[in-house]
Fold DNA-directed DNA polymerase.
Amino acid sequence: MAAIYRALYRKYRPLTFDDVIGQEPIVTTLKNQVETGKLSHAYLFTGSRGTGKTTCSKILAKAINCPNVKDGQPCGVCDICTGIDEDSITDVVELDAASNNGVDNIRALREEANFVPTRCKKRVYIIDEVHMLSPSAFNALLKIMEEPPEHVVFILATTELHKLPVTILSRCQRFDFARITAEQIAGRLAVIAERERVQLDDDARFLLAKLADGGMRDALSLLDKCASTGERVSLQMVKDLCGVADKSYLFDLFDCLLDRDLGRAIALLDDLFAHSVDMGRLAQELLSHGRDLMLCKVMEDFDTLVLCPPDDRQRYVEQAARIPQGEMMGWMARLMKGADAVGRAASPRIAMEMLLVEITAAANQPTAPQVTAVRVSAAKPAAVPQAKPVARPAPEPAREEREEEVPLPDAPPPAEDAGWQEPAAPAPAAPPIPEAVPEKPVAAAAPAAGAAPQPLPEWPQVLDALANHNRLAAAALANSRAYLSGDLVLIASENATFLKMMRENARTKADIRAAVSEVTGKTCRLGPYREPEDEAAPTEGGGQKLDQLIARAQAQGIDVTIKE
């Protein structure tokens, strides 16, 4: 009779603490507790799937009860260790809370826990997916966890920590299991492939490690699937069997979006759909590719965080350089929202096409508002006899005109303490009233102090300083302008992502204030600002430059008038 085949993730499940990969701090702590005998009555293991929570629970149960424990490690060969591995020891109970989540199940556990163990030192209860318990079941579990018998140890495991009551959390020693790095997973896959005599290419191994998303169990399941073909596991095989879009398709799709070529992007999407590429997975791959490009744009050594072949590195750099800094946050926000929509859509293909249309349409819109400047004309009058000046039209000969951008008054800015809100649109300006031409042209009076927020000329230097503390906020503030009203810095930005960051992220506001203080030496508050439609972005120098121009013209004997 042929032996029953065991899945790789079961066959190569770690049996001792030293076999566990990627959780060294947790393993070291548990070994020390076993060796010194300072055990807790309740443990809580939390983390994403496939990171070793249940595995470490069983190893800890063996280490607690093994008669031959050494350096905190179970021997693995005694009757207790082998019995726990084979689930034949009744003193170690593994309960699946997903299917045993009622109060009656926990009541039965409480009654059983009062009996002393028959073969082991302690009775160990491993409750997997504990967040699935009902509220009444949690209350029943809480009663025994408050004052458990001396011979009972609870080990709770969950992937959704936020669903556990605070009363349960406060009675457990909590251990957070981190995602296993792709390099560690790839190294483990190489060892297992050698033991199983499976020919596994290096690029295929790294792709499997990346697809596992930090879970060793997922990586072994994918390897098991590819190795079952009986052939050499190549990169193309992994792509075909796992429904992964080729990296070249991701680069080509992004090139189409950057070129605003929606037709070619839809054609590429149709080709991928014809080759049975999963649209939900493709959306996630696009989001991951966008994240890689974002890191490439803000980090020189981005390949330490991005798992990419050496041949693709230069293409990452070239494509990232094509995305404007101010648009990167908008791209990522749309990709994140679209990837979630594609995963939940009844027709993922249509949702994916809508995502491409939305990104292309947004890319075709101007990133900065078009504003009109106030024109200030300086004209030389025609020569006249020395006589009393009279009112007369401006002379017809060609004249020299200079344009200056003048900030206009706005409504009183909101205080930062009131919360960051969307800047309200300014009230429409009243129609201009024709003014009589004075007998003698005079210079325009400067606005009264405090009548309008004044431009902050050091704003470009502030953005440079902000980039050293918060690159994402600095990118979102590209093409923005700033005004000063007392100790209040008003920021005019059309970037919706930046406005959301200011509402929800206190660190963003703190970083901007620190950058302003670093450049200007002043302590300030922040507020939003929306410029009137007829207001232009102030040039460097703002009103001071206009005053200098008027003074220079008067010094040369030039009459100055102001026209709307």
Q: What stands out?
A: Residues 279-298 form the longest helix (20 residues). The chain has a mean pLDDT of 78.
